[in-house]
Amino acid sequence: MRIVAAIVWVSGLLICGLTACTPAATPDRDGTCSLGALPPEAAATVELIEAGGPFPHPRSDGTRFGNYEGRLPERDRDHYREYTVPTPGLGHRGTRRIVTGGDPPDFYYTDDHYESFCLIGDA
Hints:
CATH superfamily: Microbial ribonucleases
GO molecular function, one term: hydrolase activity
Region (Disordered): 51-95
Distance between the termini: 44 Å
Signal peptide: 1-20
Strand content: 25-35%
Order of helices and strands: EEEEHEEEEE
Structural class: mainly beta
Pfam family, one: Ribonuclease
Shape: globular
Number of strands: 9
Protein name: Ribonuclease
CATH architecture: Roll
CATH topology: Nuclear Transport Factor 2, Chain: A
C-alpha cells in the first residue's frame, strides 16, 4: 500500500498535508504581512537567520535565491538568500520559505513555493 501526501490549497485559507493543516499567509493590501500572523515556524526561522543558524537544511538554507519568477523586486544576482520554514509532519522541505535580501535585510515569506510572497513588515 502506498500513501501519497498532498498539499491542498483551499480558498487561500489552509495548507493541509498528510498530518496537519496550517493557516496560509494572507498579505495585507500593500503586500506586507505580520510575523505574528504567520505560522510559528516562520518566527523560529527568522530567529535562526538572525542568529546565523544552525539551519535544518544546511545544504539548501542560506543559498542564493534567483528570483527567476520575478515576484520580488529586481536586484543583483546574489542579492537574495532562501531558508526553509519547516512544515510539521512533512519529511521533506515542503513549500514554505523565507527569502532575505539587503542590508539591513528585508524578509519575505512564501507558503506556496515562490508563487506569491509577502514582505514581513515586523521582522
